[in-house]
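Re: duplicated header lines in exported structure tokens

Our pipeline writes sequence and tokens for each protein into one text file. With two proteins the header for the second block appears twice in some exports. Here is an export where it did not happen, for reference. First protein block:
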Amino acid sequence: MDFLIQLTESILFWLFIAAIIAGVVDTIAGGGGLITVPSMLLAGLPPLTVLGTNRMQSAIGEFTACVNFLIKKQLNINGLITGVVATTIGAILGSYSISLFPNDFLKVMLPILMIAITIYTIFSKRMRDNVSINTNISTTTFMIISGLSIGFYNGFFGPGVGSIWMLAFVIFLGRTIKTASIAAKPLNLMGNIVSLIFFAALGTVNYKVGLVMGTGQIIGATVGSHLVINKGDKLVKPVFITVTVIMSLKLIYEELQDGSTLFNLFSSMAI
């Protein structure tokens, strides 16, 4: 039986609801994939199709958020084109490199990185500031270096990229966590579009599910963008911490379930 026939209206409805919730969370602090990916897996989609379809529906939500932030004049476009170009190049290189290099090291290091981000967010004075500060690095330099490196990571591996972008904006450009959340959206969007093209070329995107969930993302991203604008740092920070904690626990659990990755990594380092 064709897989699409098995997707009943009831399943599509719950995927639509999941996408609305994910759109709100993702627009505020990233991490919407923590909701959408398990939802699609539970619906019975093959894992590779889940990854490709997730990029599609996520890109729709991020595009919606970007449009809303632009309309409300919340999105700082200074250096944005440079960042988008650098991110695109990085994501293309990262996507191409998937078949060339093992990602075992990243699978081990990512939970550590997420925990470090969470601890920094909780205890850093910068994360409590409600006013942006001037830094020594220029916006252009930041966009080129971060765009290439984070874009590469997004294309090569992907999880937690929104959190990494937000932290980079806070540390290196002195943004508040609210403005960092907004600034990260168009850059994360470009990384997702590049990855989506690769998945589409492989034929691993379920467009029916992507459009249904994308519609939910439009609703969720619209609500989320209004919440970010109106509630600001008081909302973004706790949601950001919650997302990074859940992501850390999820990644640690996955590593414990597949301890061979950690064992093989340290064995290879010892040789």
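Second protein block, exported in the same file:
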Amino acid sequence: MAMKETQKDGRPAGRPRGRGAGARRARGGTRDAEGAQAVPVSVLSRRSGVPIATIKYYIREGLIRSDQDPGAEGAQAVVDQVQLIRGLVHVVGLSIRQVRQILALVRDPELSPAALMTGATVTLPLTGPRAADVDEAELEGARAALAAVGFDDLPDAPYATQLLAAIALADECGIGLDAELLAAYAGAARACAAADFAHLPLDSPSRQTQAAVLGTVIYEPVLLGLRRLAHRELAGRLPSSSPREEAREEAREEDQKETQKEEGARHAQSE
């Protein structure tokens, strides 16, 4: 009987080489460290609302890995990670490399919720003025202004650098934030931060990161919108005209009254 031909790697001749462990995981689901089946992709898709094809992409990129069993708690932990990844990629617009950085924080059992939130938000993209757009002396002035309202220990983070640049740029444009206004802004920011931490879910690192990172991106437009609504509300309570215009209007009204009196007097004399 003729022997079957084999290739150098021992596979029967003509059998195509597999696409690797990532492809096998993508077809079946997440696997634990020993390669045992953990949470099926169909279960992840149904419970997370993320399409199967998208989850398979995450698996191929190595973003999803699980050492939990497919029980309720283990599956929910992976579902949380799937929803987090989708938000980071499709809502925030982070790259796969940035997502990996955040997931490394999520999977670090030594990090506190505060450290997790701080570390994750550092990776967020920023828009607005850059430090390179402002003179160093003006940046130092902005640093001193922040120290005056209690922020004297600024981290080496992009958002802190951008904050300094924005304050300095306001001075350049002639609309600088005086001490009273900056103190009001700082107080409002601390109140917002306290509310954020009070509403952090403490039962899951993935949910904490989801709330911290996605909340930063999604809630910031909420804060801006509320601020503008408050401006509109306050403007409705203010006088519709300036004090000078009001004085002119009062003078016109007095003139009209005097004119009416004179006309009344002349009419009485003519009778």
